[in-house]
Amino acid sequence: MSLRKTIVGQFKNPHGWLGSIAGWIMANRRSNRQRNLWTVDLLQLKPDDRIIEIGCGPGLALEACLAQAAAGEVVGLDHSRTMLDQARVRNAGASSDGRLQLRLESLDELPPGLGPFDKLYSANVVQFLPDRAAAFRKIHALLKPNGIAATTYMPRSKNPSRAEALAMADEIEGHMKVAGFVGIRIEELPLRPVPAVCIIGEHA
């Protein structure tokens, strides 16, 4: 396997010392920070919201959620123990007082009794989901009536383009409609080299 493929693979499932470096990059790269905080802002969190992030990485967006939903509960889900360890350190206070729950699981592995949630979101995770149609059915099932789901994507291919971002947005919108979401809209965040898109929908 080439070095480039090895490094790219770490952003899909960070582990070991390379995974720790990948987590540091996720937490400190300017575009990644902007993308995560923008996604949280679009959720318009309430102080007592119950929130879950799919693929929480090093916990950057979780930190923002905990600040805005000071009386709520936040769950971070990731299949990488390395990422959960970094998220736990970044949000040590909330983890120890019970406001933050970190789970070593994939979306498919979540027990049905874990929900319902007021808000659910992910940032640059959707491209790794093996069955997106099934994923958005599960996401819909995890939300309360009138709950909000937000999915952010920014292409990280060799030659990324805005067209690639919009194509993913169109696909996600289609899956969300079939899953039962309403009021779906697409937001754009101008970043370099390409914009990020966030697809937001409401549980009917």
Structure description:
With 204 residues, the protein is of the alpha/beta class. It has one domain: Rossmann fold (3-Layer(aba) Sandwich). It has helices at residues 3-12, 16-28, 30-42, 60-68, 81-90, 92-96, 132-142, 162-179, and strands spanning 50-54, 73-78, 100-104, 117-123, 143-153, 181-189, 196-203. Strands 3-2-1-4-5-7-6 form a seven-stranded mixed beta sheet, with helices on both faces. Helix 3 (30-42) runs parallel beside helix 4 and helix 7 packs across helix 8 (162-179). The mean pLDDT is 89.
CATH-derived architecture = 3-Layer(aba) Sandwich
Overall average pLDDT: 89
Rg from Cα: 16 Å
CATH class: Alpha Beta
Low-confidence stretches: none
Oligomeric assembly: single chain
Can you tell me the number of structural domains?
Answer: 1
Given helix and strand content, the structural type is alpha/beta
Tell me the overall shape: globular
Helix content: 40-55%
- Percent in strands: 25-35%
Briefly note the CATH topology name: Rossmann fold
End-to-end gap: 45 Å
Order of helices and strands: HHHEHEHHEEHEHEE
Number of strands: 7
